[in-house]
Amino acid sequence: MSLKQRLRKERKMAMRHNQVGGPPQMKIDASTLAPYQCKCGEEIFMRGYAIKKVPRLLSPNGQAGMAEIGVVKICYKCGEIYPIAQILKEIQEEEIFKPVLVGADGKEPVQ
């Protein structure tokens, strides 16, 4: 199977998945989530993109174009650059080692 055929197949599968409704969505109150902070303490970041060339054979409209891929977050205050993969790794490692304490009944969280 050529790359073009594989991409078309993946696009069709993604569209079919979205038409069915996709996976169930959870409603999360963002105000209850812990912020990710820069080394300087700032919690506001800008996006940094890589721009990729899309050849006309792979383009959905048959014309050459571009695709923007978010690859880094840049601290708004000090300009420190954080690759997205690094941020995810740090968050996932933090979650692995964060114990969850429950009461004797196994239900009530211990404060």
Question: Secondary-structure element sequence?
Answer: HEEEH
Largest sheet: 3 strands, antiparallel
Assembly context of the chains? single chain
Q: How much β-strand is present in the residues?
A: 15-25%
Please compute the radius of gyration using only Cα atoms.
21 Å
Strand element count: 3
Order of strands across the main sheet: 1-2-3
Q: What does the overall shape look like? A: flat
Question: Helical content, roughly?
Answer: 25-40%
Low-confidence stretches: none
Kindly state the mean pLDDT as a whole number? 80
**Straight-line distance between termini:** 56 Å
Structural class: alpha+beta
Number of helices: 2
Describe the overall structure.
- There is one protein chain.
- With 111 residues, the chain is of the alpha+beta class.
- It has a domain at 37-97.
- The protein is 28% helix and 22% strand.
- It is built from 2 helices and 3 strands.
- The chain has helices spanning 3-20, 84-96, and strands spanning 45-54, 65-75, 81-83.
- Strands 1-2-3 form a 3-stranded antiparallel beta sheet.
- The longest helix is centred in the N-terminal third of the chain and has 18 residues, at 3-20.
